[in-house]
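Hello Y.,

Per our agreement to keep a running log of every chain we model this quarter, I'm adding this entry. I've kept the format consistent with earlier entries: sequence first, then predicted structure.
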Amino acid sequence: MKKQDINSIKQLLSTTKKIVIVPHKNPDGDAIGSTLGLYHYLLKNNHKAQVITPNNYPNFLKWIPGENFILKHDTQTKLCENLINEAEIIFTLDFNAFHRTGNMETVLANSNAIKIMIDHHQAPDDYATYMFSDVTMSSTCEMIYHFIDMLGDLDLIDANIATCLYTGIMTDTGSFRFSSTTSTTHRIVANLIEKGANNANIHNNVYDTNSYNRLQLLGCALNNLKVIPEFKTAYITLSQKELNTYNYTKGDTEGVVNYGLSLEGVILAAIFIEDQQEGIIKISLRSKGNFSVNEMSRAHFNGGGHTNAAGGKSYATLKETVEKFISILPTYNKALNNE
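Predicted structure for the entry above:
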């Protein structure tokens, strides 16, 4: 972020402001961690801050400090839109295009508030007054740490902020195993632990508290796993009927796509999840090396993300979506087999 922009933001935040903080639709650990980390920081600077999510999020994120103060646009629409319209500053975190907020797109686009984007995804839209965009960063939570540092306020990081930021860094780096995890990431995490983040408890809260139904659904997903060895590809399908059988709740399929990627020789993994309520097939793509699932998702599945992790959607049936996915693999044969 430019020094001039940081100085302007410092000046902007030097007096009490009405601030709204927004993540993307279906927020994950990095989205919730970054918004709540920033929320606690702004409160310590005497701002009137409010986190508003487009919709609900998984239960394994509902222990994070400050989570009980989050408002949800889909169920508290009027209150949320009033706060957005009254806001002097809107922080948009972990996304870089308003359509990623679902039904909040219009009210955010029409807001007269100063907008500050902090995000690590590719190809940002040009809507923000101030933009901190860096695709090399492991997570938006790591960026929030740097943002607080640039404002000269690292001493304000307490156990609550540290816990929020650690959660997002941990989840978006796959527990620090993805290539985006750098030596700087580890130094930041060490500092967050020193500030009060209990790494063992955080890991347990996110990963080690499963319901019986969630494990049964995982078994179903793994039973549906298919491998296409000539294209070094694996994919998983989950129909709405299968989700209903195991009483699916939001977050139950988090990380399941990585089981496909863990197979020896697999470079590309996908999961296709039927969502009859939204009328779409939700798609998550993962890859190893330099194979870009971001480019694949943008080109074929109305999505995007990072080089090695992206999401998308299809309006076709589950069967038709999988057939399309298989049909485009020959196009990527050289790239997949060169990895």
